[in-house]
Fold each of these.
Amino acid sequence: EADIYQTPRYLVIGTGKKITLECSQTMGHDKMYWYQQDPGMELHLIHYSYGVNSTEKGDLSSESTVSRIRTEHFPLTLESARPSHTSQYLCASSNTGELFFGEGSRLTVL
Amino acid sequence: AQSVTQPDIHITVSEGASLELRCNYSYGATPYLFWYVQSPGQGLQLLLKYFSGDTLVQGIKGFEAEFKRSQSSFNLRKPSVHWSDAAEYFCAVGARGAAGNKLTFGGGTRVLVKP
């Protein structure tokens, strides 16, 4: 059983608010990822990290930012949320090969 | 760049019938290959993976997949579907070596199970 946790699971906020989606893993994995998934659609990589103080943008451009100050923690921040940011955000981690996913954070911006 | 195609957006199958989900990939060499399942409102769970060796891979929940290099395919199968198999299934490809574990996902196939 993978141990990767995302909070909040669901968030409804107004336009212009700053939000942070939390992601933590207890497996000691060096690599962590954020994927964005619109309803019924494929996953797109928006950020990844191969270790502490290492972050890179993924294949899909995103206005969000990430940080990796501790191995187990990989939060995603939106400074000013807009309705176009409404989506599900999935965090994952890996050591070698497969990714282990959290249950996702579903964000709705009104 | 790698890519994954899942030609079937929806599949409806009767409970107890067999299931096959198609996956085709584009990659310059032999990639890492994965199948994940996602229930509504949940994250993704790994069903099985192929790294090397035997091209027929067994996974959890009675699923198996076969890697066919000549067809660039990694189709998922289950001999007898249960109502709990209704979910979205994603095929994914990952690059080997220093590129790390960034996975590229297909568009998914939604499986509906009729009683």
Note: The interface with chain B takes residues 6, 31, 33, 35, 40-43, 45, 48, 50, 58-59, 90, 92, 94, 96-104, 106 of chain A (CB under 8 Å).
Amino acid sequence: ETGVTQSPTHLIKTRGQQVTLRCSSQSGHNTVSWYQQALGQGPQFIFQYYREEENGRGNFPPRFSGLQFPNYSSELNVNALELDDSALYLCASSSQGGSYGYTFGSGTRLTVV
Amino acid sequence: KQEVTQIPAALSVPEGENLVLNCSFTDSAIYNLQWFRQDPGKGLTSLLLIQSSQREQTSGRLNASLDKSSGRSTLYIAASQPGDSATYLCAVLTGGGNKLTFGTGTQLKVEL
């Protein structure tokens, strides 16, 4: 059973640029969620995807968008990057929403300069 | 709005001690509570999942309890080891079952 894999592991972007982060869900999981974790803080919910549609969103602006594909993998896109977007981005997969718990990937460290 | 608090923020103990990490949440309407471990700069590793109808879960040296009515959970670590050094995060599932709300974590250091 493969876990959640995220790519890339590290990324440096310039303010104003756009970035795409990728996530492959754990085998058997049909739901993918994205979280942003600033240094020293707990992860904050960005949004969740189920059946290729957004199924809940946290307090993030529209320049944060996502996709889920038929194989349940997912992308997180961030446009017009700001310095405050520098964080660890975590992807989590689950089945039946989160009733049986979430499995997290190792994250993508994004630095905006 | 659900808020999760973890106390203490940091803890340093000698090897072999039993210790308790605390987590409290403001809204008792949760689906479940999950404890995670995070090593520096890494992702989250799930330790224990407690459903809202359960009182506790155990895995090896770890035991987690849940008192939903009072909005509290504790993580008990027996016979701590240097390898237990990490940040421990608790999270509750709310928002229609699609959103985890996290605390800010307890940073644990177990010294030889």
Note: Chain B has a mean pLDDT of 96.
Amino acid sequence: DTAVSQTPKYLVTQMGNDKSIKCEQNLGHDTMYWYKQDSKKFLKIMFSYNNKELIINETVPNRFSPKSPDKAHLNLHINSLELGDSAVYFCASSQGGEEKLFFGSGTQLSVL
Amino acid sequence: SQQGEEDPQALSIQEGENATMNCSYKTSINNLQWYRQNSGRGLVHLILIRSNEREKHSGRLRVTLDTSKKSSSLLITASRAADTASYFCATDDFNKFYFGSGTKLNVKP
């Protein structure tokens, strides 16, 4: 069983479209994250949720809207996609007090 | 900003040699972690060292931390081709984990 799974793995879309990426963790963790990895492999935190509540929002454009229906799921919806949104998006989770992150395998988003 | 910066950006060695990667950061930390990323995959946690520790070992991995210099190093001994991956350090700030752009390690068989 995959601990942190995200879908889809690849997403190719046109500029201006709206798309969603889904993430689920079966580790029982309280905290989930979205990270963006750019073409230079730099990994930047975007959002974090703890028990369905948003706790971190790192000055991400409001075209990006995370949603956590329950503590095992964290989805990312992106409106009006731009070329600069092309990147690999990683979902991750952690349990408070244990500190280490468990990552999904990533969603490679290509905006044409 | 708070992210770690890894050095070198790329490292190519022969199987059996040791690989050393460095990480520098800018603010005080609670702990520092190292992660590995295989091509096309997510990051995998390797080791965590706390701010009051100076050295930690896990199998073929040795991590050092110098809080006065705000730097850490990761040593992989007796490298194997399977160690080929990118390695990232991460510093934490109350549930925020900051990463750099990694060191890309290539271990030639």
Note: Chain A has no helices and eleven strands.
